[in-house]
Amino acid sequence: MRKVVGELAKAISKTLGFEENYIENAFNMKSGFDVMAMNLYPPNSRSKGRVGLPEHTDPGFVITLTQDVNGGLQILSHKGKWINSYIPHHGILIQLGDHLEVLTNGKYKSHIHRVIVDNNKVQRVSVVSLHGPSLDKVIGPGEEFVDDEHPKKYHGTTYKASLEANGCDLIDVQSSLADLRIPKV
Ligand SMILES: O=C(O)CCC(=O)C(=O)O
Ligand SMILES: [Fe+2]
């Protein structure tokens, strides 16, 4: 998976118009830290609209997700609509993380997502890996993304601080990204 993430770092650096090592250097990805979480959603046949995991974003550069059966994960569109995700069998969903949003000063967005356990007939398991910068590097908006027309939108933070702020309690997921936003003046 690290190899895939390395290739994504190169490709995303290029889509931003930089040389391919831009993200690897900005995040010190050679010492990058990964966190893996497994989620288990039991079958539930009487729960119209019930939330299995509240809406949140995830810290890190990118997040990879695999699952055994499809269903439940929803992503909030820029128009404010919840879109059901479809991940092909053996497919890997790639989501963008909070630290990419911070580095690019909001140019790339960390997706808001949640899990609905609406009438789940069978148990679902998902495996989520957060691929992050090195733990102690302070990540703030890159100077390439900041100018008079684009003032800094985020405070800098370390990946470690974000992981700690998000906590380990998967029932009550918090997103620390909101705390990093600098209010508009
Ligand atoms: O189970 C899912 O589909 C999503 C899980 C998730 O968003 C997370 O663990 O951060
Ligand atoms: Fe998540």
Description:
The chain is an alpha+beta fold. The protein has a single domain (33-168), classed as Jelly Rolls, CATH 2.60.120.330. It is 20% helix and 25% strand. It is built from 5 helices and 10 strands, in the order ααββββββαββββαα. The strands form 3 sheets. A 4-stranded antiparallel sheet has the order 1-8-3-6. Strands 2-7-4-5 form a 4-stranded antiparallel sheet, with no helix packed on it. The chain has a two-stranded antiparallel ribbon with strand order 9-10. The longest helix has 14 residues, at 2-15. The protein is globular, with a radius of gyration of 17 Å. The mean pLDDT is 90. The site of 2-oxoglutaric acid has 10 residues, from strand 1, strand 7 and strand 8.
Overall SS class: alpha+beta
Trace the largest sheet across and list its strands. 1-8-3-6
- Could you say which overall geometry the principal axes of the C-alpha atoms support? globular
Number of discrete domains: 1
The fraction of residues in strands falls at 25-35%
Protein name: Fe2OG dioxygenase domain-containing protein
Pfam families: 2OG-FeII_Oxy (PF03171)
Keywords: Iron, Metal-binding, Vitamin C
Organism: Stylosanthes scabra
Put the structure in a nutshell.
The chain has 185 residues and is α+β, with helices and mostly antiparallel strands. The protein has one domain: Jelly Rolls (Sandwich). The protein is 20% helix and 25% strand.
Salient structural properties:
185 residues, alpha+beta, Jelly Rolls, 4-stranded antiparallel sheet, 5 helices, globular, binds 2-oxoglutaric acid, binds fe (ii) ion
